[in-house]
Design brief:
The chain is of the alpha+beta class. The protein has helices spanning 14-18, 22-34, 47-60, 80-102, and strands at residues 8-12, 37-41, 68-74, 114-120, 124-129, 134-138.
């Protein structure tokens, strides 16, 4: 008889992540992933947030935690919606730069429309991404 293989997936609303600011959001995600969960959320991080997530992951890599795999699909915005999205991203960047210079707390940045998967590198072996979908190969 084969042993049972278990894989844990946490589906987290972007509302929960939107309530967390910067390092708290990254810490929440990394704690889930370090516990062996694959986290799926209905939002996409900004490039800066994704970069911060990867930087923090690199600081925590050791024998028990080899790192993470991240894959996102952002909803295609068109016309005015795209224009306003770019303005919002720039506004949040400027506000966070000013906040860091003045020592104030960073502002909350909302996840963009889409879907993101973050999981432990020891479980996620391959991600195949197409323009409108992705497939994940796991090994437990």
């Amino acid at each position: 008889m084969k042993p049972k293989i278990k894989m844990k997936m946490d589906f987290v609303s972007s509302d929960i992540l939107n309530d967390k600011i910067g390092a708290k959001r990254i810490s929440f995600i990394l704690n889930k992933v370090k516990d062996g969960s694959i986290l799926v959320t209905d939002g996409v991080f900004t490039p800066d947030e994704e970069m911060d997530l990867i930087k923090e992951t690199m600081r925590k890599v050791d024998d028990g935690f080899p790192g993470i795999e991240v894959c996102s699909l952002k909803r295609d915005l068109k016309g005015l919606e795209s224009f306003f999205d770019r303005i919002t991203v720039q506004k949040e960047r400027i506000q966070n730069i000013i906040s860091s210079l003045t020592g104030k707390q960073k502002i909350k940045s909302s996840l963009k429309n889409g879907i993101t998967l973050v999981g432990p590198a020891k479980i996620i072996k391959k991600i195949k991404k197409n323009p409108n979908s992705f497939s994940v190969l796991t090994e437990v």
